[in-house]
Structure prediction request, 382 residues.
Amino acid sequence: MKICIFSANYLPSIGGIERYTYYSSKELVRRGHEVMIVTSNLFSLPSKEITEDGIKIFRYDCRNFINGRFPVLKKNSLQKEIDREVISSKPDIIIVNARFYIHSLHAMKLAKKHGIRCICIEHGTTHLTVANRFLDYLGGHFEHFLTALDKHYCKEYYGVSKAACEWSGHFGIKSKGVLYNSIDVDEINEMLKNPVVDYRKELMLDDDTTVISYTGRMIPEKGVNALSDAFSRLENKNTALVLAGDGPLFEEIKEKSIKGVYQLGKIDFEHVIALLKATDIFCLASRSEGFSTAVLEAVAARCYVITTKTGGTKELISGEEYGTLMDTNSPDEVFKALNDAVNSPEKREEAVTNAYLRLIDNFTWVKTVDKLIDIIKENEQK
Prediction:
C-alpha cells in the first residue's frame, strides 16, 4: 500500500509525535509498504528526500511559533508542488498525526478534496499550554475552533491511548479505537548492550549511587521544577538527579545550583538510552501527556518509573506492582514518591520486571502497525 503521513513536527525535532511518526513509518516500510511523510521545514533541510530507511520526506516551508512547537505551513509554490506530488502518487490513505495543527487541517482538506480516506490520531490529553493563563485561554478557544473545522473534513479518529481517545470526546469526537504509542524493544536492547557513553563514569558517580533521571523538554508542564525541588529534599544523599533536555527551564534550574543535579542539555536518542542504562529511577512528573514515549523507553531500559496519572501512561504503569503513579505533580507528592522509591530497592526490582513484561506484551510497533493495517484493510473490504 501507499501511505501518506502528515506530521507537523518530525525528526530531527525530538518529541512523542515525531518518534511515533518515524517508528510506525519504519515498521510499515519493513513490511513492504510505501511511506511518505509530509512535515515542516524547521531546520533548513532539503524540501524533498528519501531516507536510508526508504521513507520519502516532504517538507513545507513554515513559520516557527512557540519555539518550534507550533509550525505553520506557508501557502506557496513549494506547498502546491508537494501537494501535487502527494496526490499524483495515489495514496491509499492519509494519516494525520495530531489534530491541533494548521498542517493537520490542510492534510484533511487535501484528502477530502481528492477523495482519499483520512484518519487522524490524537496524541494529547489536555489543551496545549505555554504556561501563560491568558494565552492558554486564547489557545484553548483556537483549538476548539480548529477542531470544529477538522471534523468537517475528517470523520475517523483514533488515539495513542485510551486516555487520548477520552480527550477527543472533549471536542465531541467519538474515537474508533486505540493505536498505541509503542517502542522498538530490539533496537533499545542493542543500544543497552553497547552504550555510546557510560554516564556513571562520565559524571563520576559511584556504583551504589541511586541515579534518578528525566529526559524530555525542559518546560513547566513536564513538572521539572517539582522534580528538582523534591530531589533537593531527599533524606538519602547518595543520590543523583540527571536531567536531559533543553527548554525555557534549563537556565532556571541551573541557577538553583542544587547539589547532585546534573544537566546534560539536549542529547540524541543513543545518549538517552545510555543515560537510561545508568538510571535506577525515571521520574516524569508531567501534568499533560498523550502516552509518554519517555516512559516507554525507561521501562524498556529496565528503570523503575514514577509518573503521574495523566494520559496513557497509566495503561502501562497500571498499579504499584509496575511502578508509582502520582495523583498530582506537586513537589510534596513527588518528594514522597522519590523518597519511597530510593529506599525500597527490592520493590523497585520486582516492579521493573513486571512493567517490562507488560511492555513487550502490549506496546510494540509490531502490534500497533498490525492494528493499523487491519484498520486500512477493513475499509477496503467493505
